Amino acid sequence: MLFIDSTPMTSTPKNSSQPRLKVVPPAVPEPAKPQEKPVQAPIEQTPKKSTFPRQWIAWGVIILGLGGIGMIPVNHSISGKTIITPTVGERQSVTMPETGTLTLHVRSNQTVKPGDILATVSSSSLEDKKAAAQQKIGEAKTAVNSAQQQLILAQTRLEVAKSLESIALEQRNSKRQELNQAQFSSGAARMRALEREQAGIESEIKGIENQILGLENERAGLENEIIGIENNIEGLNEQLEIVESALEKRQGLVTEGLIGSASPELMSLEVQASELKTQIKREENSIETYQQKINQKQNQILQTQQLINQRRQQIGVKSEGVNEIIESLEQQLEEAENFVEQKTIERISAQREVDASLAEIADKQYLLSQQSAEFNRLEQQQQQLAIQATVSGTITTTDLDLLNNQTLEAGREILNVVNLSSLTGLVEIQQEEIDLIHQSLPVTFKPRQATVDQYQAKIEDIQPVIKSDESGQNSVLQIRITIDNDDRQLQPGLEGVAHIKTPQLRVYQKVSREFFKLFPWWKL
């Protein structure tokens, strides 16, 4: 019997679509055999492809992706710690110009403009200096006036001396000519010579009268000078009364124990009083001297008048002979020459007096100019005691009321005026960011406050020196920025952060910068 086994064989290849048929002979009992595993037909296997190219492709894609990402431009900014300070040229520090009592005309947080009076200072020492300078100016003016009067008198004496010298020269020449004529001419000519001699004597009398007039003018000048000295003494007495009154007040304060006996003001007043008394005594001595000169001039006038009488007596004398006439003429010529010599000496002396008076006036005028300059300097110094604002801004000093009406030393700081609309910030950035900084970059300042306010700023200056930060471990560059503070909320001394917006960087550039900040290769 034929059986057809339709069971599929496991060994059938995968590509067989139907089971195979075979003829099976009749079953014959056979000894049991161990069951054999069916033998599987060989399976077609696709050759295993290598994964090496795929890995490289994946890495290449990753690298290209990272490279593409690295080339993406991103915004970049540099941040730095910033401290706000007043702007140079937009601030004013006011100090005491002189030791004295301060009177304030402003208050804290008040806005001022140039020319506004901030404070005034009252200085008693400056007032004393001004009074002393004014007194010295008065003394110098008096000295100049006195010297000018001396010059006028000296010039008058010089003119008189010149006139008398000229007359004496004419008389000497006339006597010499008469003597020559008397020696070589006839008797009639000699008689005429006598007549000419009489005329000469008359002329000499006129000259002597002019001399008397000059002496009287000198005496009048001396009297006027005495009047000027008396007026000067009167002024000095008035000044002495003022100084003694002030001295008496200071001595009263010493007695009451308000000031010490060695007070500079008390000692200065005592010195002034002593100087005034000495000057008054000197002026009184000058009056006595001038009075003696007046007496001398009066004696000279009397002597000159006696000389006139003698000359007039000579006119009436008749010559008894030619020899007597010649002898008389020789004597008169000798007297005329002596007279010329005397008048020449007087003229030289008068010229020296004029020169000395001019020099004295120059010295007194120079001293007056010095005293006037000192007084003007004190006036300007007093004007500076009215302290004015030189900039527009806000009073930033607190507790000003504690300084008002207080006596302060010279040089002490009183207050500060700051223009708050434009402040300066000092920004510290790391040395690694220097190559990205230039002045045209925009800047934003954010104060360290619990607000979101930010302020626009611009780079004003880049410092040329690298410094160390507070820790001393990092090198930083300081940049000065100008901050627009229109709302006036920022104050000097406030801290914050400035953000400097730089040109865009590629991602790889930004990453490399941050990497080198964390791991600086130059320290390895």
From TrEMBL:
Its main location: membrane. The keyword ATP-binding does not apply. Residues 7-19 have a biased composition (Polar residues). Residues 1-47 are annotated as: Disordered. It comes from the Bacteria. GO terms for cellular component: membrane. Keywords: Coiled coil, Membrane, Transmembrane, Transmembrane helix. Belongs to the membrane fusion protein (MFP) (TC 8.A.1) family. This is Biotin-lipoyl like family protein. It comes from Lyngbya aestuarii BL J.
